[in-house]
Structures are given as structure tokens and as C-alpha cells.
Amino acid sequence: AQSVAQPEDQVNVAEGNPLTVKCTYSVSGNPYLFWYVQYPNRGLQFLLKYITGDNLVKGSYGFEAEFNKSQTSFHLKKPSALVSDSALYFCAVRSINNAGNMLTFGGGTRLMVKP
Amino acid sequence: GAGVSQSPSNKVTEKGKDVELRCDPISGHTALYWYRQSLGQGLEFLIYFQGNSAPDKSGLPSDRFSAERTGGSVSTLTIQRTQQEDSAVYLCASSLQGATGRTEAFFGQGTRLTVV
Question: Count H helices, E strands: chain B?
Fold first, then answer.
């Protein structure tokens, strides 16, 4: 079975500071990894994904994520946080070895960026 | 349509009544997911359809919940004899999922269900 862990329920950061939202995964074989963001009263929006190639993936709104196979992690990062980045962030995984397998989500991390 | 469409956007129902929630996925998307989200919390997986394969129903919380997908497109999630604990936002997502599974899922705006 595949799983995703987001160890922090909430991350607080000051505007202008770098942010990191952590994600670790467990899957048989190699993974496809995804990050989504949910703003208040909105559906989930796709941010970025890792499929293959460069371990550093760049996505929407200045976000990036680094795939680390040895640590089975896919942490979301941004060099300089904005108040408007405050939202709920979800990490998700799908196994390459079973492409018919479903997308599994972590429990979400609430990011609070304070002015 | 341009995105995943869910209806209704809001539904208030009396305890014990049945409800049907509808999801129109993006045209051509073979995979369809239903999730439940309570009070802005995490996503609880409910059911997953992939092409013509038998759906993965492992997340349905009780036999009061069922879902179908007609013609590989529109899906309906049915909750029978609703209970107050069923109150949540029900999210549908679809993806173009061929042999590689590389594509991301696209979410609808959800149906907010309130059982009173």
C-alpha cells in the first residue's frame, strides 16, 4: 500500500522568509509525486509534479519542490513567502509500477504567512 | 467543459433523507475520484474509477454510500439515510490516466453537504 505523510499540521512563517512544507512518502517502486494547494472555500489546485529527471521541480506561484529518493521526501519550498500563500497544502503520490493505482493524499499542512 | 463540474454546490438535507451528488469530469479523462473533506481538514478517499475496471470502493465509510459512473463519464455519489456525520465537502477529481499515470488530477469545486 502507498502512503503520504505530512508531519506538520501547520507551518507559520513571516512574509519574505523562505518556507518549507514537508512531505514523505511510501510506495512500491518509483513514485510520481504531486503538490496541490487549497485556498479557503475553493477546490484543490495543482501546483507541481515530479515525474522523472531533475530532482528540483518548479511550479506555479514561485513554488518548487525537491525530490529526494534516499529520504523518500518531496518537500515544497518557496524562497520568499507571501501573505497570499496562506492556504492548505496537500502532497500526493502515485506508484509508477502500477499506473492504474489511485492517487493517495497526505493529511494536509496549513501554511500561515504573517505580515 | 473546461473543468470538473460538480452539482449541486450546496445541499442541505434532513437527517434520514437520501442525497445524490453529481460529478462531470473533464472530457476524455478515464480516472475519476471521490473524496470527502471535513471542516477544511484532510482528504478522505471514498472511491476511485479507472476506465472499465472495477471501481476501488475501499474508502466508502458504510453501505449507505454508493457511487456509479455511467458510460465512463458522469459519476453520481449516493448517500442513503443521511446522518449528521455525513456533513462535509465532497470533492470529485478526474485525470487523464493512461498507461503511465503521469498526469495530475483536476478537482471540482466540491459539494458542501449539510445534514440537519
Answer: 0, 10
pLDDT score at A69: 93
Q: What is the pLDDT of residues B34-70, one digit of tens each?
A: 999 987 678 888 998 988 888 889 899 999 999 999 8
User: Looking at beta carbons, which residues of chain B come within 8 Å of A108?
Assistant: 41-43
A45 touches chain B (CB under 8 A): yes
Nearest chain B Cα distance for residue A6, angstroms: 10
Chain A hits for B94, CB-CB cut-off 8 Å, are none
Q: Check B40 against A101: CB less than 8 A apart.
A: no
Single-letter amino acid, residue A20: T
Residue carrying the nine cell digits 463540474: B5
Q: What does pLDDT average to over chain B?
A: 90
| C-alpha cell recorded at residue A104 | 493517495
What is the predicted pLDDT for the residue at B96? 83
The pLDDT-based confidence of A65 (bands split at 50, 70, 90) is very high
In whole angstroms, how far apart are CA A110 and each of A22, A28, A41, A91?
11, 28, 14, 12
Strands (E), B17-97: 19-24, 31-37, 43-50, 65-69, 75-79, 88-95
Q: Which residues of A touch B107 (CB under 8 A)?
A: 36, 43-45
